[in-house]
Amino acid sequence: MSDLIIVGGGIIGLSTAREAAIRGLSVTLLERGRPGREASWAAAGMLSPLAEASADGPFLDFALASLRRYRSWVAAIEEESGRTVEYRESGKLRLALSARERGLLEQRREWAATRGLHARWFEPAELREKEPGLSLSVQGALLIEEDFRVDNRRLSEALVEAAREAGVRIQSGVEVEAIEHRGGRILGVRTAEGDSISGDRVLIAAGAWSGALQGLPRPIAVTPVRGQMLALGTEGPFSERVLESEEVYLIPRDDGRLLVGATVEEVGFEPGITAAGIRSLLEGALRLVPGLGSAPIVEFWSGFRPGTPDGHPILGPSPEVDGLFWATGHFRNGILLAPLTAVVLAAAIVGGDGPRIPEAFAADRPALASIPEPSG
Alpha carbon of 67 to those of 23, 46, 205: distances in Å? Predict the structure, then answer.
């Protein structure tokens, strides 16, 4: 019997498992496939609080606080795992391809200043001195300095090792079918093979699949959002910064690959790559950097992000079942939010002092109330 059972081995489950084990809990993590190989593997690794937030509020506050933990968090994981994580504080250039986009970015620069963030506007001539490969149609760009990137695949692999070093028992190929509870108290989980695994506390961190578990005290408002991506091979140096327009983003990797992403498709759990999806990514990339037309496509893939109605994650204790906790619904920001998510959840699970979970992320918040209550 474990103090804590975690259902789901993505970056959120792994980071929380590691943190809870460091705080003294015995932790078992159950993953139906290979840890870190679903949405965490399919992600791009952008760490973009300002770009991802639509306004001031709890999401931006949480995202900025998580970003500020990243450097020390990655350093600890590298030391514990013995693996190198490609983490770069390189900034992002958000590019304007129209007068409308330029106006929106200038507003975002003013917003950044009110939050004490560093954002600088580049006119086209100055921009092309720094990024000569950009299209002549680019009308300027906003450099967001507090916008970093990490190789999410390397990070996922390192987290697996760091969690094991902390004492987490990781079981791959174990599909959890249901949670088990009685009298308002968690008992553990049941696997697809029919085995019951007992635990004092259960954390559901199964991403887009979190709502499919049986035995939930209420339907949970998490839906899959498919994202398609591809990687190009580049010859010679490319920008160290992330380049982004309203259509697409380009993320360099140290090995010479250039990630191009990503589509946002509400198609349920329909897997795979489509011609239309790949075409839209390539067209967006070539509008920014025409010279990429000769670059080879070296990889393409898709994944399912866990979306919620209001775009906020679902974190913290279940209001109905004592010992049941949630960590899902991070959409495309699981990589960014992982350091702080792990800390606030571990504090909630273990007890004691620590950062608190925003009320806007609670499982019983009004924005999730449109999901019908279970019958019977």
Answer: 22, 11, 20
**Domain 223-305 fold:** D-Amino Acid Oxidase; Chain A, domain 2 (3.30.9)
Domain(s) labelled CATH 3.30.9.10 in the chain stretch across 223-305
**Domain 2-81+152-222+309-368, CATH 3.40.50.720 — does that match?**
no
Q: Tell me, what DSSP letter sits at residue 361? A: G
Model's pTM, two decimal places?
0.94
pLDDT per residue as tens, the chain (376 positions): 899 999 999 999 999 999 999 999 999 999 999 999 999 999 999 999 998 988 899 999 999 999 999 999 999 999 999 999 999 999 999 999 999 999 999 999 999 999 989 999 999 999 999 999 999 999 999 999 999 999 999 999 999 999 999 999 999 999 999 999 999 999 999 999 999 999 999 999 999 999 999 999 988 999 999 999 999 999 766 789 999 999 999 999 999 999 999 999 999 999 999 999 999 999 999 999 999 999 999 999 999 999 999 999 999 999 999 999 999 999 999 999 999 999 999 999 998 777 889 999 999 998 887 544 443 3
Residue 78 contacts by C-beta under 8 Å, 6 or more apart in sequence? 84, 85, 158
The pair of three-digit structure tokens given for residue 27, joined into one six-digit string: 């932790």
